[in-house]
Structure prediction request, 347 residues.
Amino acid sequence: MFESEASVVDQQVSTGQLPTWEEVEELTALAYAEYRDLDEGEVADYIPALAHASPDWFGVSVAEVHGRIHDVGEARHPFSIQSVSKAFVFALVCEEFGHDVVRERIGANNTGLSFNSVIAIELNEGSPMNPMVNAGAIATTGMLAGISHERQWSRIREGLSAFAGRELEVDAEVYASEMASNQRNQAIAYLLQSYGRLNRDPHETLDVYTRQCSLLVTGHDLAIMGSTLANGGVNPITGERVVSPDTTRDTLSMLAGNGMYERSGEWLFEIGLPAKSGVAGGIVAVSPGKGAVGTFSPRLDRAGNSVRGQRAIAYLSRALGLNLFASSELPAQPRPTSTSGFGILNN
Ligand SMILES: NC(=O)CC[C@H](N)C(=O)O
Prediction:
């Protein structure tokens, strides 16, 4: 954290606007401790390399917009970003084309169907529907300008690295494994092309999309990437402006509607935060103006969302008063047990 920011934080803590460092540290540790033994959910294996993950891994990280970061458990354990990349690639495309173009070309409505649904494309006359499902994400990746697909790829890697504040690398094993087993995504890409919805060659576009999904991140990185969105597009650690405030607004509203796939409505109702999940077990949840939570645990529910991650974020949303729709300035009391009756969390 920069010194000037530290004094802003001190001031806000002393005026009661922010919880203290110790309070956030303690609540992050409690969110971790509360759910570390929860054994619901399965590790994804439809991409064979993901099946190597331990079901026990669990990390929680909270990053505040002023740069304070709180890590617990395996918050520094690397894993492939998978669909969490969709949020940040959408932000890069939104920055390039603007609100109206992405709404028209991709869409913003939930499919109500699984993230890799083919039928959703057919039911909607070729529309990819939204950038947070595979069809929309593949179409979004295909929109990025760039003479070669290598150039497109470097723009994505550089852009996501700027969100994280460090250079991100591809997990070569995960990339090769998904490229060898992504027949469903190939079907989606060719179907989009048949409807005139893909700007570029389907195979090249899928190659870039699969690389973006294979980038290695940690829960700590996700928290920083999310807090860059929470902070109007400026990375709170590096101070770099990555995208504009308009783009963060559009990205966060897209996450609110679609980031947790067909569970997005329930998620927003229970937790009240824009969020994005990925099948390797990562979730990022963003509270605009406050910060972000990054979690990692490979046990997934049927929609492909990390079970422990959802619970830990639900806990922190309540404990830290992050819910966007809560009118009270005072943080609500966290619910103490894992059987707290969240419908979404009891798949
Ligand atoms: N939900 C996900 O994380 C899916 C991402 C994965 N790379 C896929 O395309 O199937």
